[in-house]
Amino acid sequence: MTTPTNHVFINCPFDDDYAELFDAMVFTIYKYNFYPRCAKEVDDAGENRLDKIVRIIRECRLGVHDISRTEPDADGLPRFNMPFELGLFLGAGRLGDRNQRRKRSLVFDREPYRYQQFLSDLAGQDIRPHNGQARDVVVALRNWLASYTPHLPSGSVIWEEYVEFRDLLPELCQAAELVHSELTFTDYTRLVYGWLENRETLDDV
Q1: Which of 51, 57, 120, 178 has its CA 20 to 30 A from that of 166?
Q2: Do 110 and 116 touch, CB atoms closer than 8 A?
């Protein structure tokens, strides 16, 4: 099976504290005509979570990974899901067939070189700090995606567009009979895609 060249696997926290960064990431990927994929895209109780992640990784050429949230939780236990999924993605790229070896990754952390304290095997990788700021995620993601498609607007331009969309999101939810706080991944991606399509149509008039 040929891996789609524009599918992007997103490996990051899915909690409320990370929501702003995740939403900005999804918006940016769609804006540049790529297709975001993640474990939240299908709610199928019959599919093992690991099997689902492996399937999505297999179907994506590009991967965005955020390993900034590995600190211990209230029980003193670290969160290893993101480093684990990063390892799966890198392993597929190094041990898979020729199609899988075309995989490319962008890795985020909160601060430069912090990852060396808990994941030293990544030494030599180009890790991008985002400082917990959604704007930094958008700019770094744009610069990375520019390696795979030409003529992309600057990250700061897309950030302003995302802010416009974010401010209109409650109205878009109301028009679609959706509750903002209850949006699923599929709901959100449809709103992003629809708004971008409508905005580009108006720009062409």
Answers
A1: 57
A2: no
Which region, left, alpha or beta, applies to residue 132 given φ > 0 means left and ψ of -120 to 50 means alpha?
left
Please give the Cα distance from 90 to 4 (Å, whole number). Answer: 17
| pLDDT band of 80, cuts 50, 70, 90 | confident
3-class secondary structure per residue, 33-44: CCEEECHHHCCC
> Angle formed by the axes of helices 19-31 and 134-145, to 10°?
30
The residue among 10, 18, 97 whose CA lies nearest residue 56 is 10
Count CB-CB contacts under 10 A for residue 186: 12
What CA–CA distance (Å, rounded) separates 128 from 119? 14
Taking each continuous run of H as one helix and of E as one strand, the counts in the chain are: 6, 5
- DSSP code of 125? S
pTM, 2 dp:
0.90
First to last CA, the chain: 40
